[in-house]
Amino acid sequence: MLNKFQITEVELTRVREVGHLLENSLEQIVADFYAWLEPQEEYRIFFGSNTKLLDRVMASQVANWRTFFTCKLDETYFASRRHIGAVHAHINLPNDIYYAGMCVSLQSILHHLRTLKTQPPEREKLESAVIKLVFFDTYLVAEEISRIQKEKLNVSNQAMHALSTPVLPVWDGVLLLPLMGVIDSARSQEIMNKVLTKISENGAHIFVLDISGVSIVDTAVANQLIRVAKATGLMGCQSIISGISPSIARTLVELGTELGSIKTTATLRDALDLALKEIGVARARPMNITPLAH
Amino acid sequence: MSSELAYTTTSTLVSGCLVVTLPQEIADSLEALQDYVLERVRATGVRRVVFEFAAVQIIDRTEFAGLRALAKMTNLLGARTVLVGLSPGIVAWMLTSD
Fold first, then answer.
1. Is B22 an interface residue toward A (CB < 8 Å)?
2. Could you tell me if A227 and A192 are in contact, meaning their C-beta atoms sit under 8 angstroms apart?
3. A212 in a structural domain
4. Closest CB from A248, A264, A292 relative to B78
5. Which residue of chain B comes nearest to A270, CA vs CA?
6. Domains of chain B by range and CATH?
7. Are B37 and B9 in contact (CB under 8 A)?
8. Tens-digit pLDDT profile for residues A17-26
9. Residue B2: pLDDT over 60
């Protein structure tokens, strides 16, 4: 990795030299950084009401620059940079502030180097060594920030996935899956797996698939869902598809899709009614068909 | 020129059953007829639909296929369908051509 950044032992020695030369200017360099940060929105957000936090952060920044200039690229150093990245990721600091901030600090370091009373020999080489190491340091922190952001995204994706296929036991031996949103081939595979697993766990005899929440039911989606319903049949579980709208009914008939033993209803209510009848649950009143609207 | 009545489909709700009275002439209004019936079934939530053929004297292959499809669509909406009032002429035609 150091090779990519063209950082050799020689360069590290040079950076250490700069560290010695600027030992007393480190606090000023950090102060320059905060002078730049103060008018930014983020300053107000993080430090606005909390001067003790500000002091603490400034002190730890000075310490960070000290370790930077000692150039001991060991596990402790890498761990500390990862820690900086983690802190910034968790406070959700926008990336532009971090990179711009490092740039401002670098400018400040170079400025102090150039304005030293006694100019060191081969100053350009010293400058270029510092620049390389600042880039390297920034990379280490940025890498950790990006890794944490990806992780957060993964977690929220997984949560969404888990929510998206809720196979619910609504009665003894009756499972219900109210599908919502868009069904693509990946999701329908997941639905198939989840449904069949639940059926075998539950020993369910009836599976109701409600599609009234599915946004688009075209031929592909219809076929996928019918496949699921037929598969349950192989496991000894009868499927009922509810939430059939007039346009879906039209699509299915025009396609000539064979539903076989799969029952369908327009409403979830009717499907549950059928399901309970199938498993022999007696109803307190005789069935009255009441119109929903007239 | 047949009057407008020849093309009108009406439906009534009787004892939890939707009775659809088919018009004398279906012709080009097949799709509109299908949409109308499906919407009525959806709105009333009935489980039984009766298709009344009393006004239908002649029917061709396309029209009949369309009505058959409509019956299937109605089934998918969870309703059982019954065809009533078929005239002897139509029944004979159905037996020979289907």
1. no
2. yes
3. yes
4. A264
5. B78
6. 4-87 (3.30.750.24)
7. yes
8. 888 888 888 8
9. no
